[in-house]
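All the exercises in this workshop are built on plain-text protein records. Sequence and backbone structure share a record, each on its own labelled line. The structure tokens are whole numbers drawn from a learned vocabulary of backbone shapes. The record below serves as our worked example for the rest of this section.
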Amino acid sequence: MTQDQKTVSNRAWAELALLALLWGGSFLSVRIALDEIGPLTSVLHRCFWAMLALWAVVAWRRLPLPRSLRIGGAFLVMGALNNVIPFGLMAWGQLYIESGLTSIFNAATAIWGALIAALVFADERLTRRKLLGVGLGFAGVVMAIGVENLTRIDLRSLAQLAVIGGTLSYALASSWARFSLSGLPPQVAAAGMLTGSTVIMVPLALMTEGVPTLALQPATVAAIAYYALAATALAYLLYYRVLAMVGSGNLMLVTLLIPPVAIALGAWVRDETLSPNALMGFGLLALGMVVLDGRMLARRNRTRV
């Protein structure tokens, strides 16, 4: 039985749901923090506090540490691709678009990932089924953006493109991690990546938004604590735990569960409303990911035999 054919236990389902809740809530918490702090400062908080939490876990578990300069450089690149660029672009984008819509675009990471992996790795060839899944996914993204936003340039359309750029960076990070960080304990890889992110973010945030202050409103402090400690540090640990339990294919379910959580929270807390096009776009995007994964179609074909 391969990783992706593992039976999902009730406990694994519960942890998948918890991971979706953690990540789904991150979009709202980032938006709340942006009411008082700038986008780059919000990213600095996210990386710095999550970094401290994960290094504490590494020290507690006495995990071996890499000592190669090559690995240090890989951490910097990974930190830029997986944190600095996507966190920064998405935080800026959320100033102008709804947190629920941001979460829908975030789901496009899987579509970009399939394309980039096919270009980089010989064992990730794009089959006709995968091409169909990618096509459906891109159609969903275009529908969610809205054709009218593709024909004009304003802050809302630029914000949507920024968020999509963040998903492309996530996909590049996934291939980079497979290429350069395989073999490291996942907790060490995550802590090292966040260290690289923090090293990059400190000068960026200081130069553009000034010295961060901790004299913040309680809601802002709670939001930062949530998205740094729960939705980043704890979510990374839970992600690798669930990955070991259910395999990467089943873990794709989290990507489908995150937007409903983010949409519901945005509507409940901030009275956000999404257009029918955005919701239909998510439906197409979700269908594309199901086709891309392929297992549901294979299971259906087996039942017909």
Observations:
- Residues 33 and 199 are 21 Å apart (CA to CA).
- Residues 1-5 have pLDDT under 50 and may be disordered.
- Residues 218-251 form the longest helix (34 residues).
- Residues 8-304 form one domain.
